[in-house]
Amino acid sequence: MKGATLVALAATIGNFLQGWDNATIAGAMVYINKDMNLATSVQGLVVAMSLIGATVITTCSGPISDWLGRRPMLILASVMYFLSGLIMLWSPNVYVLCLARLLDGFGAGLAVTLVPVYISETAPPEIRGQLNTLPQFLGSGGMFLSYCMVFTMSLSDAPSWRAMLGVLSIPSLVYLLFTVFYLPESPRWLVSKGRMDEAKKVLQMLCGREDVTDEMALLVEGLDIGGEKTLEDLLVTLEEHETLETVDEDGQMRLLGTHENQSYIARPVTDQQQSSLGLRSRHGSLANQSGIHKDPIVGLFDSLHEKMPEAGGNTKSGIFGSMFSTNADVPHMKPAHWEKDVESQFNKDHDDYATDDNAPDDDSDNDLRSPLMSRQTTGMDKDVIPHPTGGSTLSMRRHSTLNGENSMGIGGGWHMGYRYDNGEYKRYYLKEDGAESRRGSIVSLPGGHDGGSYVHASALVSRSVLGPKSVHGSDVAPPTGPLWSALLEPGVKRALVVGVGIQILQQFSGINGVLYYTPQILERAGVDILLSSFGLSSISASFLISGLTTLLMLPAIVVAMRLMDVSGRRALLLWTIPVLIVSLVALFISELVQISKVVNAALSTVCVVLYICFFVMGYGPIPNILCSEIFPTRVRGLCIAICAMVFWICDIIVTYSLPVLLSSIGLVGVFSIYAAVCVISWVFVYLKVPETKGMPLEVITDYFAFGAQASAPSKDDT
Fold it and tell me: Transmembrane ranges (predicted)?
């Protein structure tokens, strides 16, 4: 995972620059006003130009990134930052300064919108949340370092606001060099354009290994949007059935892997087996949630994580990882027409998806059959140790080439298989059931005919993008309609409700108001008096107080990074939002109740510190993380742009309504509104926001589609 981590760190410099600029302009405005004697409205315009630029660029950044790629847009962001820093360093008048601030907003909008998307598309599922918390950490770190710089410059006799703002060009140049010479293009975007060779090389760099066949197959399957999906409970085994190619009379079937001679045997769970073995069905988890008005999708995702063995550490290890059979002695793992039809289907699919005229020609390895369905023997096939027939899965796990470095899952304990059925290939996303009674166990089938040992797994089944659609040569092309029409797919619409809703509620949850109020709280606590005793001016003291406030965020974000892929996004929100509510309630009560100044200052300080720390642990980074995870590959940029545009519009509304609200309803009224919004936020998260930790992006979007599809009939009935 070293490659993915370094790439995420390099990409997140864009968020560092955004945090740096936010703090710098807050300090520089004091000296800009002194130098130019600006009217209050013009001061607001100088600050607002960055927000305006970010909002404008966000409206088109998503579709353009879907067209040109993620990397070119990050390069453009670094160029915008660099140019804005140089222009602000020059700035002969306020008009040029506003232009520079607009360019800076373009860079910030691109970074805030696309960096989470880029990280999600390049990070392994097991650490995706941790890496996607880096933007919050580096953004806060940039603010802290910027306040330190502004504070240091404020100690001089004649601080230069141009120098304060112009320093931005130095880290921007570093970011530009990283984006041009180090950052690769997103492998998911490359696959969506049919550039398979390039995608394979990027995945090899990110994963740190040569064999990325399963990852490539997963990315191709992620091109599909919508489609009919079913959920099946299966019992999966390692037992060999050399003559089994599809389904036998008992419902037993062979699921094909993405590697040559890789398959496993599965059979549906019968009602007798489910009751006698205590196995649970995901269908029950989906249906039972509707009775308590929780979105069925939330219940479905919860059922995937309940008592699930942790997927941390090794990215592919686990009980289910040893279920694949790679026995080279089984001669007919795939139907005879597989390879020919996959080649034919790719040629058709490639024409549908590939829009890059510079894609390599057909003589290269730039097709699906080479990276995905290679008939050549791999190193894994050469070194495989055939498993003993009839042995238990537990005893065979030490022989499996799918554990450790050579394991062949798709991340997070998930596996993918194919089944040829009625002239088309079906795709299976499989996950071992994590019920505590069955954890790590192998069950013997009651009434089984072969005495075999099986593992209970849940499978989400849908039509495969990769496999041929008909044995008669009449292929059905995957969906290639306009991107805007894809927004009408039930799963995409449900994901947009989650993404837009959580962005709106986050902005109105009070962080801007609390940060605005923090300096007053700390002054009331006597911090300014303490600092003035060291000979600091009131301006320098305010900069130092702001820096100390930002410093409080960093340890809390580190805690969030550790918990994001362990506790999960949904759990962190449900745990941290109540602390925000209590802090806000305590703040407006302290304003209403007459208590001593010392007690009031102490209580207010504690509440502010708690609010800030718990906000950056949950509500700060998680909305952007979720929005980068829940949308299909082909419309991810477009959907992210919609969510980001909502974010920036709400940011403008909150920023400029705060002074008006303070003057009209006072601090108590403002904090009361924020507390009410936090209550609504908790209810929204509980009812609508699913848990996405450790799941491949393609699996997340497929489960959204299935959940929306499965819950549609119940809505119609009502």
Answer: 43-61, 73-90, 102-119, 131-155, 161-183, 538-560, 572-589, 601-626, 638-658, 664-687
Whole-number Å distance between alpha carbons of 398 and 359: 42
Place of tokens 């890789």: 262
Q: How far apart are CA 51 and CA 104, in angstroms?
A: 9
Q: Residue 355 carries which side chain, given as an amino acid letter? A: T
Q: How far apart are CA 8 and CA 561, in angstroms?
A: 13
Distance CA 400, CA 385 (A): 8
pLDDT in tens, 191-202: 988 899 999 999
Are residues 109 and 57 in contact, defined by beta-carbon separation less than 8 angstroms?
yes
Q: Which two tokens stand for residue 191?
A: 């696959």
- Residue 661 CB contacts under 8 Å (≥ 6 apart), including other chains: 669, 670, 673
Number of CB atoms found within 10 A of residue 253's CB? 22
Residue 125 per-residue DSSP state: G
C-alpha separations of 471 from 231, 345, 461, 464 in Å = 25, 11, 20, 14
Question: 47-91 pLDDT, tens per residue?
Answer: 889 999 999 999 889 889 989 999 999 999 999 999 999 999 999
Burial tier of 302 (Cβ tally within 10 Å: 0-12, 13-18, 19+): middle
d(CA 587, CA 590): 5
Place of tokens 């962190």: 572
| Integer CA distances (angstroms), 607 to 171, 582, 591, 619, 718, in order | 35, 8, 12, 16, 44
Q: What is the pLDDT of residue 442?
A: 43
Alpha-carbon distance of 126 to 121, in angstroms, equals: 13
Residue 376 burial class via C-beta count within 10 angstroms: exposed 0-12, middle 13-18, buried 19 and up: exposed
> What is the distance between the alpha carbons of residues 596 and 672, in angstroms, rounded to a whole number?
22
Q: What are phi and psi of 421, to 5 degrees?
A: -145, 120
Contact 613, 576 (CB under 8 A): no
- Structure-token pair, residue 112: 């805030």
Rounded-to-integer distance, Cα 601 and Cα 518, Å:
11
What Å distances lie between residue 451 and 237, 239, 325, CA to CA? 11, 10, 18
Output the CA torsion 457→458→464→467 (10° steps): 10
Whether the Cβ atoms of residue 322 and residue 238 lie closer than 8 Å to each other: yes
Question: In order along the chain (718 residues), what is the average pLDDT of each group of 10 residues?
Answer: 91 96 91 89 89 92 91 97 96 95 96 95 94 96 95 91 96 97 95 91 92 88 85 74 53 76 78 60 51 78 69 41 40 41 42 44 42 34 33 31 44 84 84 53 45 74 66 37 77 95 94 80 72 81 86 94 95 96 91 81 87 95 95 92 92 86 87 95 96 94 90 55
CA 489 from chain center: how many Å? 20
Smallest Cα–Cα separation from 239: which of 321, 328, 329, 324? 324
Backbone angles phi, psi at 334, to 5 degrees: -120, 145
Closest CA to 609 of 589, 591, 586, 592: 586
Token readout for 20 is 């740096």
Sequence-separated (6 or more) residues with CB below 8 Å from residue 269: 233, 234, 235, 279, 281, 456
**456 and 438 Cβ atoms separated by less than 8 Å:** yes
In whole angstroms, give the CA distance from residue 356 to residue 172. 30
- How far is the C-alpha of 675 from the C-alpha of 669, rounded, in Å? 10
**Inter-residue contact 463 to 349 (CB < 8 Å):** no
Say what the pLDDT of residue 124 is: 93
Q: What is d(CA 551, CA 141) in angstroms, rounded to the nearest whole number?
A: 8
- Burial tier of 156 (Cβ tally within 10 Å: 0-12, 13-18, 19+): exposed
Output the six-digit token pair for 440. Answer: 């790590």
Q: Are 120 and 537 in contact (CB under 8 A)?
A: no
- Based on its alpha-carbon atoms, the radius of gyration of the chain, rounded to whole angstroms, reads 28
**Residue 148: alpha-carbon gap to chain centroid:** 31
